[in-house]
Amino acid sequence: MPNPAGRDTLRTPGTGHSPGRQRRPRRGLAGAAVALVAAGTLAACGGGGSGGVPTLTWYVNPDSGGQAKIAASCSAASNGAYKLEISVLPRNSDDQRQQLVRRLAAGDTSIDLMSLDVVFAPELAQAGFLAPVPADVESEVSEGVVPGALESAKWDGKLVAVPFWANTQLLWYRKSVAEAAGLDMTKPVTWDQIVKAAQDQHKLVSAQGRRAESLMVWFNALIESAGGHVIAKNSTDPDKIKLGFDTAAGKRAAEVMHEVATSGVVGPAFSTSSEDTSASQFESKDAGFMVNWPYVWAQAQTKVAAGVLKQSVPDDYGWALYPRVDANTPSAPPLGGINLAVSKFSRYAAQAYKATVCITSDKNQADYMVTNGNPASSAAVYDDPKVKKDYPMADTIRESLQASAPRPLSPYYSEITGGLQREYHPPAGVNASTGTKADDLISAVLRGDQLL
After folding, report:
1. What residues does 113 pair with on adjacent strands?
2. CATH number of the domain to which 98 belongs
3. Which domain holds residue 102?
4. DSSP-derived secondary structure for 364-377
5. What's the CA gap between 71 and 449, in Å, rounded?
6. Residue ranges of the chain with pLDDT lower than 50?
7. Which residue, among 238, 156, 226, 218, has the nearest Cα to 413 in the 3D structure?
8. Cα–Cα distance measured from residue 178 to residue 183, given in angstroms and rounded to the nearest whole number
9. In this structure, are 182 and 149 located in the same domain?
10. Which of 153, 200, 205, 210 is nearest to 180 (CA)?
């Protein structure tokens, strides 16, 4: 199964935490670094290589073998400059972050290159764990990258990671349902319109209402589409961060979330609905509309090939840009994906950055998209014939990525998404006071006055 960024099964991209989990307020990673370096239990030797060829260890998120294939290809193409070896991280995004942070805080020289969830870079950069991106590499890896992916790789005005692959959610619809409802899908549509169409046709609107990172993905897309931001004023000082939940845009986002959740067309157990739940609903006879990542297309084709889904089902799939919150304001679709980062403690940082240039080449991104189902961060890849053949919605994915908005970029992302998930779940319970409660809770956690 491809790794579709954002799915809760992998918790990628994002740092969603389990409900009820209590953690002490974290004021950055500096203090943790001191304690772990003192312990020194994770420092490793690695990186030697045979015959004078540096061996670079690349810590990767689980996929269908695509990153290992790229590692072998780039190793061969380097002509002896380096050899890439893969080390696979845990499937859960929280566990990925924890393992990397512990090793980096201990100054572990065995980490050279990392595949990072798009929300992780600011935290690691602020802690001083990432090697500076050389100017020539920055120029090469930034060219032609979709804006949201490039923004997600920056912190404090500097590029701190290298965009690898990007992802975005589309509005998926059953063509037969939209036609019967008289909905013109060649034009932008709003959440209100798709809910009404589903109600009229007695069909489902599938979205992700569970208490997980997917809830942050949904809310962030709503508030960005309403012209606001989860972080209204950013800062490296947690006491100076100003949140945007209790604003006009935040209230409008909450209103849409509540209206969808209470519309009567979201299906049973919406408060536990994940991306996979939505994908399964969309394959059913009750399907109408869905917001989800492009993996749902490949999944449906795989099921057809296995004989467990009729070809008529994906034949009825249509796709469009993410729904608008308000008719006159373009939507800001979700952004997911993976960025590459080089450890400050790597003995081969120069070689590791050369490897990032190879890994993120248009050819490798196109091959990775076709074989592993993860969309490219390079806009040019969507013109590749192989990509267009396997993804007939390639142009829509690219258009969505061009309009997409990252989730809040902050070293304190973990606290922010954890607080949002606590206050905005269940979506049916969201009301006019939820924004104020979220602002108050997360601000208190950032100040160190409250546990999350």
Report:
1. 58, 342
2. 3.40.190.10
3. 30-167+336-403
4. HHHHHHHHH---BS
5. 45
6. 1-27, 30-46
7. 238
8. 5
9. no
10. 200
pLDDT (0 to 100) of residue 94: 83
The secondary structure of 272-294 as a DSSP string is: G--HHHHHHHHTSTTEEEEEE-T
Q: Tell me, what's the pLDDT at 406?
A: 97
Q: CA 128 to CA 116: how far, in whole Å?
A: 15
Q: What is the pLDDT of residue 452?
A: 85
User: Is 16 inside any structural domain?
Assistant: no
pLDDT at res. 38: 36
Measured CA to CA, the distance from residue 300 to residue 308 in angstroms comes to 9
Of 368, 360, 363, the closest CA to residue 298 belongs to: 368
User: For strand 317-320 and strand 170-174, is the pairing parallel, antiparallel, or unpaired?
Assistant: antiparallel
Q: How many domains does the chain have?
A: 2
Write out the two tokens for 67.
């990153």
Tokens encoding 101: 């942070």
What is the DSSP code string of 314-350?
Answer: HHTEEEESPPBSSTTS----BEEEEEEEEBTT-TTHH
Structure tokens at 161: 């990671």
Q: What is the pLDDT of residues 116-143, one digit of tens each?
A: 999 999 999 999 999 999 999 999 999 9
User: Which tens digit of pLDDT belongs to each residue from 173-204?
Assistant: 999 999 999 999 999 999 999 999 999 999 99
Distance CA 246, CA 230 (A): 9
**For the chain, how far is it from start to end, CA to CA, in angstroms?**
34
Rounded distance between C-alpha atoms, residue 234 and residue 423, angstroms: 21
